[in-house]
Hints:
Order of helices and strands: EEEHEHEHEHEEH
Largest sheet: 8 strands, parallel
Helix content: 10-25%
Mean pLDDT: 94
Number of domains: 1
Shape: globular
Strand order of the largest sheet: 5-4-3-2-1-6-7-8
Number of strands: 8
Radius of gyration: 16 Å
Oligomer: single chain
Structural class: alpha/beta
Amino acid sequence: xxxxxxxxxxxxIKLDNISCEKVGCNAxxxxxxxxxxxxxxxxxxxxxxxxxxxLKSGIWTRSDWKDEFGSHHNINMVPPLxxxxxxxxxxAFHWGSGPYAVYVGCILAKQNETIDLLGFDLYSNTNxxxxxxxxxxxxxxxxxxxxxxxxxxxQISKLFERYPQKQFRIFNKDGWEMPDSWxxxxxxxxxxxxxxxxxxxxxx
Length: 204
């Protein structure tokens, strides 16, 4: 099971050359075919339904948009959170597409299936936004301020704790720093060369 974030570390990787079950986020459909697309932003749901004419993927979105999109047979509601605190980062509406994509992947994955995360950069190496789709419709401009990743880090960490029996592999560039809260027995880091080897990826 491959969960695809939209960090720029995955730029150049041809996602359709990876033969496994995939869960992607938002505009992933612009470049690849994935079985499941998580769109927490209603604008992205509208874009997928409008532009992805031969839609075979299932879209996962917030229950907040159920009245607007729920009648479409390809629409699923993201799963409810299993916990709640008074903190903003633990409220369902403040979970983004990335963490929800990991959550959906955890639910869909087979019992002993490894869950791989690609493109979950979290941080920007500059002061500006890190997203492969920046400067395109429904995304920030390239000179927009980098997003604070603290909510994403916390929420995905909660999923690692929620599913201790599952093995998670994080793939990113050499030198990428894994957050301390992600350093758990069921979470491992590999670089992108190892990604290509381990997933039998070919650029051809």
